[in-house]
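ok posting inputs for the fe (ii) ion job
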Amino acid sequence: MNNSIVPLINIAPFLHGGADDKARVAAEVDRACREIGFLVVSGHDVPAALIDAMHGMSDDYFALPHWEKMRHKIPADRLRVNLPGRERNCLDLAYHIFVIPTAFLDAARGGAVTFEHFERLPPPELDSVEKVIAYGQGVREDFAAWWRAGIVPGTVNTYYGVQPAQGVMERTAWHAAQHCRQLMEVVAQSGYAPDGPLGEAELAGLPLPDEIYDDEVPMNAKAANG
Ligand SMILES: [Fe+2]
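and the output
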């Protein structure tokens, strides 16, 4: 067998022939698997429409955004792995990232940014990558709808007093951004390239620490700023 060519093996004799035919095809498959490791089969009776449908589904899958495909690669148990030097795991952090804008929205709608927001842990039912993504997507849509409505209060209530809404919104941005940097690092260390990572343009002007695992700026810091 030419071991530089993937063999094309007609298996129709195996499916429809006698014992000798089956033995001959089996020997061909055996040799292909031992010498090449791959083979292509013909005469398999799989309907062409089914093959086309399978190719179509493959094309659709590989056309998905990178992050969408990644969620099929990250097993749920990875969510419970703690971040370096932290008592917080990836699931807690992913949830926390979306609680940050939730806290701001609550305040912008007449409530307040509270300590309780930032101490929240993911509810038990949020136990898979898919559910975390769906939860986050809901928050994103909620925030976008609020922004489109164009009703931005001048001030909002927070646990550090009444503050200009603009400043609290900036804190919301850098607080979430810092944690996104940490999650991006987890993704990178897992062997994946973050899709659409936050870069200099997105982070410009935000008061972020140099290192992604620098201690977080205390939540009551920069209160004058918002
Ligand atoms: Fe935080």
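notes: Strands lie at 8-10, 40-42, 112-113, 155-158, 161-164. The pocket of fe (ii) ion is lined by residues 96, 118, 175, 179, 216 (CB under 6 Å).
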